[in-house]
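note to self: dont lose this again. the chain is below, predicted strucutre after it. 412 aa total, dont forget to put it in the shared folder this time
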Amino acid sequence: MKDQEFRKIEFGNSILGPIFYDFCRKLYLYECGHKGDAVSLFAYRGGVRLRYLYERYLEGRELESFIPRHDFYISRILSMKAGVWVAYNKARSVVLREYKGVSVQQFVSGLCNGAGISVPSEVGSRLLDEKMFHEIIFGSASWAKRVQEYLTIQGEILREYLYSLAGDRKKILFVDTGWSGTTQYFLMKSFPEFRWEGIYFGKWDTWGENPSHFYCISGIAVEGSRYLLTRPQTSVFLYHHIIESPLEPRFPSIEELQKGPHGSIRPSSEIDPQKIPPQTDEFLFEGICDFFDIAKTLSIEELSRKVCSAWLCLRRKILYPTTQDVVTMTVPPRSADFGKKISVPVIYDKKREKDCTWVEKIREIPRSIWKQGKIAQDFPRLAPLLLFGYNLIIVYLRLDLQKFLKKLRIRL
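---
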């Protein structure tokens, strides 16, 4: 095994492992308080690996949960398809943010995956805006009617699917990685006959809006709106993909449901359950699972010490990474879901034929998801000083990075 592969496994084992194990311990306690008419639905994609870890936890501790558990084929875009009319303002806000600068035809193609809906060129070439979104959802043009029919069918299939999972139970424990609960919001609006309760790894008020549905969401590993020095768990808000990525099996997001010939309901994309356990090159997740095997014999006191140490270590590595930490903790490019067929690297590196200047490297920092990692990678010798300055000015004082760089006359 290569040294770097070993380091990733060790990182998953010693840092992420205790954190996820503690999440599973809290999830069990949470479920114990909701016996009766509840059912736990683990959302695709990250939720299904949380279920995989949770069942390893129960098996290792010889515990039994009395609440039925199911994998739940769902995503933000699929829940929005069902809830676009009952939660129009929220749907409009999310869509215009996710599809900024995209044409109407591109949006319709992404929304109605595989439906082959063609928008007349004079309309389809226009950029999506509030007026055009209203025309798509409420318009009377033939192409808009086809979109509306598609959305109606998806909503009906989702309703049938949800009832098949819930049965006669009226309380749904919606388990997912997090963060702001957009998927749950649309589900609550579309199916108010159920009592929804979100159980997330992290509850994050990303936009500082205190959303109306947050009252029924719990982040049992971390909650907050920004990083706080006194709460090391909130450091994951600066690089939440280190939590998400190991939990996402390598199959596509669930964007559409289809009914089979015998009434079965499946996603339109191919899902291979064999990819839920750690694969041969998923070293972070492999390390996490290794810790679950080790932790069977740990006492609560020993586990608590490991969890506390893991959070402190993770915070240090996120805020002040070394070049080796960057290599170990950089996850594969992120899939930009919501019907978009692109991927986004966590550390932005523009391909160039020659070495770039330090000014060009600084310009790339705002484009990176993990900005501290970008600084440590591109400025290895100056990294301690630059990271201290960045964390002080941007993280603690909360200045806008792009405005700050413009004040330094570094044009983005």
